[in-house]
Amino acid sequence: MARKKAQKSPKVKKTRDARIVLRTGEALYEPDSGPGYLAAEPEVVIGELDGPVGYAIANLIGDQTKGHSRVFAILNCDVQVRPTTLMVSKVTVNSERYTNILMGSVQAGIANGVLDAVRAGDIPKEKANDLGIIVSVWLDPSVLDAETVDHEGLFESNRAATAKALGKAMRGEPTIDWLLKNQGNVTHFFHEMGVKGEL
Predict the structure, then answer these.
(1) Residue 13 has what pLDDT?
(2) Orientation angle between helical segments 151-171 and 107-119, nearest 10 degrees
(3) Is residue 1 part of a domain?
(4) C-alpha of 72 from chain center
(5) What is the CATH number of the domain that holds 69?
(6) What residues contact 16, with CB distance under 8 A and at least 6 apart?
(7) Residue 83: which of 40, 119, 43 has the closest Cα?
(8) Helix, strand, coil percentages in the chain from 3-state DSSP, rounded to 5
(9) In angstroms, rounded to a whole number, what is the distance separating the alpha carbons of residues 10 and 174?
(10) Containing domain of residue 84, as a range?
């Protein structure tokens, strides 16, 4: 009886349908002009809803903490974005005015930034219902000192920063090669200020 030749396993081709277990990203967006509170620096986590990111979203939304409410990113009431996106404030919220700015212009900017990342192809459109995103949001408390708040500026900054952070997360940027090459050329801004005695 002739022996059957062992069949080689087919090579698995990586596609855009491959699982996205957990990826992280961060971005800073500072407009060319305007008050400092317009700077946005979100940190994002993105991954499958049936994995660690989805479990984290479920835990966060079900375990609210005073001063750090977790809310979905929405275009407007009754219009939640996809992929499911949960906002978590880095700042302890203890002011109605701050809450209204955070849950207004900033929330709308983040929601639009998520959709921009899908439109740009950074997030696969076909996975929009399978992925979840957690956005850790920084809204500078100095916004409360402003006599007139630039709501349009806050919207645009958070929109751009969110899309940028998600793009970096999905592309794995910065790469380890870039980091190793540039480690000695990058100084943390606030560390440098501290060393100079400016803090």
Answers:
(1) 41
(2) 40
(3) no
(4) 13
(5) 3.30.230.60
(6) 124, 126, 127
(7) 119
(8) 40, 15, 40
(9) 32
(10) 35-171
- Tell me, what's the pLDDT at 197? 92
State whether the Cα torsion 174-179-184-188 is positive or negative: positive
Q: Is residue 15 part of a domain?
A: no
Distance (Å) of CA 71 to CA 46, 77, 127, 161, 178 = 16, 12, 21, 18, 35
pLDDT band for position 5 (cuts 50, 70, 90)? low
Q: How is residue 115 written in tokens?
A: 């959709």
For residue 89, the one-letter residue type is S
Q: Is residue 131 part of a domain?
A: yes
Q: Quick one: which of 39, 26, 41, 74 has its CA closest to 153?
A: 39
Q: For residues 103 and 100, what is the distance between their CA atoms, to the nearest angstrom?
A: 5
Q: Give the pair of three-digit tokens for residue 33.
A: 């002009």
The answer to whether residue 167 is domain-embedded is yes
> Predicted confidence band at 11 (pLDDT cuts at 50, 70, 90)?
very low
Q: Report residue 193's pLDDT band, with 50, 70 and 90 as the boundaries.
A: confident
Q: Which residues pair with 74 in a beta bridge?
A: 80
**Cα distance between residue 18 and residue 35, in whole Å:** 42
